[in-house]
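It is time I had a proper look at our fold encoding. Can you supply me with one protein entry, sequence and fold together? It will help me judge whether the discrete encoding reads sensibly. Leave the record below and I will have a look:
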Amino acid sequence: MGSLRYDGVVVHVDDRTLSHLQIVIVNKLRRNQSFLMSWKDSPEVGDGRSSIWLHPQMLLHFKFEGSKAPTINEEWLKTLAESADSSRGLIVTSELGGLRSLTFTEKGRAETTLTQTPTEPRQRHHEQGAPSNHH
């Protein structure tokens, strides 16, 4: 289980998902673009939703548990990048298109963890509640 640290918030996420998020986030920030990243909270923290505003002037730290970089799923990467470019921001989804549950820790608050929620087979991306690139 890796983690993403940002302005006092630590989001725990599996290395595979974190690798894909890192690519999308770094590509946005290197273009000096700020954006929202949202996820479904794990049941341990109330099963709600959380979001953070990411901008290039804040320190961001990606910590991977494993030493090997996973194979990148180009279709999933494209879906995440399109989400990040939308007005809704980057919505963390699984490779199958369902929402991902994440765990996070804030300064002085209880810790939570990113876990995969069961999903139905991927149908159409916009039917899964994820943002569409159509405006």
